[in-house]
Amino acid sequence: MSVPFKKDPVEFNGRKLMAENVFDLLPKDHDCFIYEDIFAQIDTKSIEEKYSMAGQHAYHPKRVTAILIYAYSQGIFGPRQIEKKCKKDLSFMYISHRNCPNFRVLADFRKDNYEFFVECFKKSVKNGKKQISYADAQAKIMKSRGSFEYCYNGQILVDSKNQIIVEQHLTRNANDKNELKKALTEIEKNTSKTPEKVSADSGYRSSDNISAIQNAKIDGYIATGKGEKDSSHDTDKKIGKSQFSYDSKKDIFICPAGHRLQLKSIGKKRVHKADDKICEGCSFKNKCTVSSNGTATIYTDKSGIILTAMVEKMEKDSSKKIYRKRKIIVEPVFGQIKTGGFKRFSLRGIKKVGGEFSLVCAVSNFKKIVNMIKAQTSCPKERELLLQAI
After folding, report:
1. For the chain, N or C: smaller number of CB within 10 Å?
2. Is there a contact between 42 and 65 (Cβ–Cβ < 8 Å)?
3. CA-CA distance, 368 to 164, in Å (whole number)?
4. What is the per-residue pLDDT across 316-348, written as a single tens digit (0 to 9) for each?
């Protein structure tokens, strides 16, 4: 026997005081109708199993989920404010079926079902799957302080076609130097595919992240920093290792003066060294910080070579062109989330905050899917067919 949940009140489907259903007052192309169709596809069986046959009938978890997602999409995050909207706003009344829980039920549901919101995010990826371009994905971090003393680091990967978030997770790690391996694993779980290209900002610059991209056979582009001032035009600036370019095919370093440092030995460190005579007459000799006994020498390990090879790659014009796309792909997504009103997490603890972050990312995707459906359809029947297709 299935668990009996509260039924929609008669007023929701009935006619009252007017010769029309009250929801006919909403514009026919109102977003709430598309959201309602999308919410019908959300599977809440995993939550329904938590409910008991005893006691009062509970609000159906699908309805509570719909209310929360729709509220977040409208920039309403507080349970008290959501409850008020459900009593005053016609679109909220429609989404809630005029059967809105009080704020405590909304708050407890959000707090207690953080794992389910991860599934909602995956559903949003699935809904947007046909709109995703697997040729390119962009990684981005958002550091955000919650309502309490904890600082969380939100990670997202966004597809290049419609800015669908295809992977997200939350971490307390102080930096992002080991985050891409997890992200690439999750993106394959979420979409059953891996992108051809991945771009990431300099916060991801590490040999572990670069190796993760290479092992996944993905063409990676990771920024190597904000750049260094050219020492050749600065008489006071010291010349460090970062000013030496690396040629991975020839396995040589080239100093700012254009001289080559050849591989001399391999042990715990790889040693590249310039010719003694060349360094002796070099005008940069006094400024060269990599000089050892008067000769330019660079020590690297496997990690250093991986990083240096990425520096070489990112110096190419073709790489710079690909990386510049980040500004119009991933950067706007967090801007849209913040512009939508989300500034702080409402919950405490990494798991619950992670659930809310999943909810926020799911809402971002659903908003884009709704806009896509509106752009491609002109009537409810077309909308129904398109929803069946995705």
Report:
1. N
2. yes
3. 7
4. 999 999 998 888 888 889 889 989 999 888 898
User: Is 133 within 8 Å of 329 (Cβ atoms)?
Assistant: no
388 Cβ contact list (under 8 Å, min separation 6): none
Amino acid at 389: A
230: phi then psi, degrees, rounded to nearest 5: -65, 115
- Which is more confident, 343 or 64? 64
Q: For residue 261, what are the CA distances in angstroms to 253, 293, 298?
A: 5, 15, 8
Task: Quickly count: other Cβ atoms within 10 Å of residue 10's Cβ.
Answer: 9
For residues 189 and 212, the answer to whether their CB atoms sit within 8 Å is no
Q: What angle do CA 53, 55, 58 make, to 5 degrees?
A: 75
Instruction: Give the Cα separation of 265 and 299 in Å (integer).
Output: 10
> How many angstroms separate the CA atoms of 69 and 297, rounded?
58
- Edge to edge, what strands does the sheet with 197-200 contain? 165-171, 151-159, 137-145, 197-200, 219-222
First to last CA, the chain: 32
Helix (H) or strand (E) segment spanning residue 71: helix 61-73
pLDDT above 80 (res 141): no
In Å, the largest CA–CA distance within the chain is 99
- Long-range Cβ contacts of 270-274 (<8 Å, 24+ apart): 270/299, 270/300, 270/301, 270/304, 270/305, 271/297, 271/298, 271/299, 272/297, 272/298, 272/300, 273/297, 273/298
What does the alpha-carbon distance between residue 357 and residue 345 come to, in Å, rounded to a whole number? Answer: 8
Distance in angstroms (rounded) separating the CA atoms of residues 66 and 109 = 12
How do 197-200 and 219-222 pair as beta strands?
Answer: parallel
Percent pLDDT > 90 in the chain is 46
Q: What is the DSSP letter of 293?
A: T
Pairing label, strands 137-145, 197-200? parallel
